[in-house]
Each structure stands twice: as C-alpha cells, then as structure tokens.
C-alpha cells in the first residue's frame, strides 16, 4: 500500500514555482488553441481536394466576419429597422401624382357642392393631364423626312445580308482528338507501308516482264536455229530476232 502511494506521488505533476512559469504555461495553452477550426483532413496532398477545402474554410471565415460586423452595427444602432425600398420609376411616380391630384380635386368638388350656395365649381377634369398619343415634334419631323425604301432596294438588302458572312458569328473550334499525335504517326506508317508495297509490286512486275521476254527470245531463237529441209539455217528468222534484241538493248 505504501509502495502504491509512493508511486502515485511520483507520477503526480509537481507545481512549478519558478518565476514566469505561469506565463509560459498560458502561452503554451494559447498556442494549442491557435490552430482554429479545420475543414477536411490535414494530410491532403496539393491538388483539387485541398484547394476545395481551403476555399470552403475561407468562405466560412468571411461569413462569420460579416455576421460579426452586422451584429456590431446593430448594437450601435447604425442598421435601420425599416428595410430600404426600391426607388420608384419616374413613370410610376407621375401616375401616382396624377391619381393624388384627381382624388384631391374630387374631394374639393364634393366639399364645394355641399357648402356652396349654388356656385359652380371647376370640374375635376380640369386637374387631369390627359396623356397625348402624338409623337414628339422632332420625331415626327424625322419620320416625315425619312423616305420608305422600295421593294427592289429591300430585296437587294436582303440578298446582301444573306451573302455577306456574319462577322459576329463565332468560329467553331475544332474538336480536340485525344490521340491526335499517335493517329498521325499511324497514318504516316500506313502511307509508307503502302508505298513500299506498290514499289515491290512494280519491281515484281518488271522482273516477270523481263523473264517473259527472255523466254520468248529463247523460243524464237530455238525455232529459228532449227534446220530446214536440207539442214540449212533460217538466217531470215534469226536476223529478225537478233534485230529486235539489239533494238531493245539500244533503247534501254
């Protein structure tokens, strides 16, 4: 039992009475808390997911700062209680003023008819400003001066518009091929193989042609060298065959 008590006393933290120990301990605790909140795991490599988590963290910090500033302004009374309304367009404001004048004129007319001794009050219509449907004088002068194009001019303009290429039309970019370089190399190898095959076939054809010519010459010479009835050589046939051979040799 005594040994257990001694072990517990040895394991228990001892108070530090050195000068500045409390301040150092507070600084260490502050450093531990200075990490802030975390979004996602901390061991992500540099890439898309790490940038995404950093962007989410920045957005959360900005929203928290905005809420904090809004609460501060609300405490100081700088935030109006009434929501700001959108500005009214000039056309709607004119209509509202016209309606207000009309209502005021009607009220004045009713009060005058009740209190007056039969005096005629101006009609409420005098307060109304009837909108004019006529165009502005400058616009009317432009319309009058402008001449309407003829049918031939319209057709010519339509044809020019159809024939002229559209400048604002965006050119379509060529579709990207995933293996363009490999495809071009394969086409090049295929073309080279086709050329070699054609050259080989041409050489084979020329060789076969020469073989046929030699065989034909051999048969013609063998036939010409056969003796006649009396065993004489046929010089006329031999000369013809030899002449053809000389012509072929000279021509080549």
From TrEMBL:
User: Residue spans with biased composition (Basic and acidic residues)?
Assistant: 1-31, 48-86, 179-218
Q: Where is the composition biased (Acidic residues)?
A: 112-121
Q: Where is this region: Disordered?
A: 1-236
Lineage: superkingdom: Eukaryota
* Protein name from the UniProt record: rRNA-processing protein FYV7
From which organism does this entry originate? Answer: Teratosphaeria nubilosa
Lineage summary? Eukaryota, Fungi, Dikarya, Ascomycota, Pezizomycotina
